[in-house]
Amino acid sequence: MKVMIVVLVAIAVAVVLVLFYGAVRPEGDAGAAQGGVEGGFGWLVPRPTLAFADVADASCADPTVQGFVVPSNGACGIPLPAPSQIALCVEDPSTVAISTDGSEYPAQPVKASSLSCADPKPVAIYDTDTVLTIRCLVLAQCVVLVRD
User: What domain of life does the native source organism fall in (predicted)?
Assistant: First the structure.
């Protein structure tokens, strides 16, 4: 009998606390629900695939090739929105080094196998303030295409 009274009191206290918190908590904004999901389950949030038009304002963007043209031994930084993904294609993936660097995680290299024009794999962007950096490793300019 004593155990049952203790359990009932614990349940009553929990109910009162939940009601009190619900009455005094601040209002959330429109993105509060998504922010909660991204916290622990960010990989579940859909990532739209970026088209060239979404990144056309980058300094190395070239609309004639629908991609990026990086000078020999040069680099180009492209700011990307999160969450999103971008599919990139390079004729010879060994000529470039591509990485993503955001505000919450250190720079992460993109695998050369993801850059194949035969089967480009989307690069996931999940960090805020992410910059995609393309480094050209050869003495000729490098062309990196954006695939939809």
Answer: Bacteria
Could you tell me the mean pLDDT of each successive run of 10 residues in the chain, 148 residues long? 86 81 57 50 70 94 96 95 89 94 90 90 88 95 93
For residue 105, which phi and psi values (nearest 5 degrees)?
-125, 155
Pairing of strands 67-70, 142-147: antiparallel
Please name which of 130, 131, 90 lies closest in space to residue 111, comparing C-alpha atoms: 90
Amino acid at 114: S
Cβ-contact 133, 76 below 8 angstroms: yes
Burial class (CB in 10 A: 0-12, 13-18, 19+), 107: exposed
> Tell me, what's the pLDDT at 71?
96
- Residues, the chain: 148
Beta strand pairing call for 130-136 and 75-80: antiparallel
**DSSP 3-state of 40:** helix
State the sign of the Cα–Cα–Cα–Cα dihedral 42, 43, 48, 53: positive
Please give the Cα distance from 3 to 99 (Å, whole number): 59
Q: Is the pTM of this model over 0.85?
A: no
Neighbours of 130 (CB within 10 A): 23
